[in-house]
Every structure is written in C-alpha cells, then in structure tokens.
Amino acid sequence: MSTPFTVRPRPRPGVAGAPTETVDAAGPALATAPVPAVLERPSAAWVPQRGAAASAASAAAEARPAPIAPARERHPALVPFAAYLDDPAVTDLFVNGAAGLFVDRGAGAIAAREWRATEEEVRDLAVSLIGCGGRHIDDAAPCVDVRLEGGIRVHAVLPPVAPAGTAISIRVPRLTDPSLDDLRRTGMFDDTVRRTLDDAIARRSNLLVTGAAGAGKTTLLAALLGEAPAHERIVTIEDVAELRIAHPHHVRLEARQPNLEGAGGIGLARLVREALRMRPDRLVVGECRGDEVRELLSALNTGHDGGAGTVHANGLHDVPARLEALGALAGLDDRALARQVASAIDLVLHVERGADGVRRIAAIGRPLVDDGGRLDMASLDGGGS
After folding, report:
1. Distances from the Cα of 70 to the Cα of 46, 98, 219, 245, angstroms
2. For labeling, which of 74, 124, 279, 294 is most exposed (least CB within 10 Å)?
3. Is the whole model's pTM more than 0.85, yes or no?
4. pLDDT by residue (tens digit) across 44-78?
C-alpha cells in the first residue's frame, strides 16, 4: 500500500485554515487542492520560495499574464510546486531525484536549495503526476509524457533508465489561448512579421514551425491557428495534446501508449490517416518526430491547404537535414522528400529562445529543391523583431 501524501494549506492573512486532505500517491485523485500549500511527508521538507534568478527575467515576466491554472484548481500532486507555479516568471521545473529541484525563470535552470526530497518521495511524486494525466509509469513503462489540466506538461523517467534517480520535467505554459497580439507584445515578432503571418493565414498557406525544445513552437502555432476563420474545422494530432487554440471548431486527437501487454497503442501516423476521414479544413501535426511526416506531407500535397506542423531544428538551414532524417524513418529517399516538402510547405517559421528568455521568430524561409535534387531552404526577409 502506498504512503499517502498529506496536504496542509498554508495560512493566509484573514483566511482560516482548511481541513487536511489525504491523496493516494499511487494514482490520480479527484479532490481539488486548496490554495498554495506545503506538501509534508516524513523526512522531507517542501518549502518553495522565489529564488534570486527571478530578477533576471522580471521584464519578460511583466509581459506574461498570470498562471493559467489558479492554485485552487490544481491537482494535489502539484502542491509541492505551488509557489513556483504562482510565479509568472517560471517556465520550467526540473526534479533530478534526490539532487533536488531546478527552476527556470528565463535565465536558465537555477537550483532551488530550499526544496528537498528523498528519491523514494520523488518517485512517488512522479507516479502521482503521471497518474493525473491518465497514464501509468512503472518499471515496464519507465518513461512517460503527459499533459495535465491547464496545459502543464509533465515528463518523468524512472531508474535504472535515469541512473541518478527519478527525473521529472515540468513545462509551464504562461499564455492562455495565446493570440498573435499577445505574442507581438512579448516581443516574438514585429509589425512586419505580423503582416507576413496574417497573410499566410488568409492565403491558407501550409506552415512548418521549427525550433529547439522550449523555443515557443507550439505557442506560435496555436496563436496562428486561432486566427483562422471561425467556420473552418481544425483537426490537430499530437503525441501529448498541448495546442490550446482560441477557435470554436477545434478537434483534438492524441496518441495512445500501449498497455502493459504492449497492445492498444495508436501512433501519430495512424491518427493523421484517421484525421483525413474527418474532413478537416486545416490538418495539423503538433510535432513530427517519425514516419508521420510522410502522412502529413501526403495530405498537404493532396488539396489540404492551411495545414501545419512543427519540427525540432537548431536553425533554419538545419531544417532540410532534419526533414531528411525523418523522411528516412518513413522510407523516403532524399530526392523524394525534397519534392514532397517543396510542394507541400509554403512557409517555414524558425523560432528561438534568446539569452534574455524572450522567444522570437529568428528566421523565415521557403523550401526549394536545389540543382542536385536535394532539399534546401531559401531565407526570406522579415525574421526577427
């Protein structure tokens, strides 16, 4: 039987203390956590507080709205991180086993030395967080990624895959249904780029958003799709559903991991094929990581305009090599891939996260086939801000 977490609300001026709640660490609970609280367990101290790195990102924080998941609506498994989730500068949290918690406020991950937990407690926390997202993590499935309510994304890895101890990564979205106006205010692009983006949506251009992890690909894509006309039907396919789109007709499909017997898994490639039967006006793959790139390119080459996808890449001119690698997984040679991409994709938007923590459109390009039949990228004016 698992050891329960005991949740005790932290007193606030003028507010009486709330009763104690007990939450089973082995799985999801339906109870809602009180306002910011301290999670207490024997031999552990969870006393989060703002670190000195907050001042380095204060300018960026002012441009962000309050956290999208108020404390009163959070699941009790998130209670150990309450103070960090209430800090609008925090974008990522990392728990490295018994080594502790690291907090990113836009200036890099800084150790939160006031936060302590044993390896056993971190593992229990990982199990509870993954359970909140409707999945399971154990020795048979030691690496799991889930999305919690409010858009918070949690990834956890158990030993021995993580030899130094259970590793938990939490990505905290700070914009609720972001619009292009919101992103313009945060400095992602200037007025010239904004006109390019508006034109791309109006023309139903097929878009590819590229960048490193955490650069803002999903945020930008969601804002772009939110500008689509209300009568259009948007179908999104994701490994873990992250896209939050302010649009009245958005259908979300999410991949499913296999069960303990290895059956029942549904991957992105199949979901793309299923989505084509749903008559989408805009077909979107949240992130291309494998052979689903073939299905997406095929769809965008057969009359499905206004579609989009994201791909990890270090720079605009690294995109061709990245797509060739994905094409190889799908059985496409370099020449076939080049023709497919050049025909299917109208615009490539590359985003980067600067040292100041601000995410920007760093380059805009258009794919083409070079003289040797390989995929190349032509830079267009207008990137940056």
Report:
1. 20, 28, 20, 19
2. 279
3. no
4. 344 443 333 333 344 334 333 334 444 435 677 88
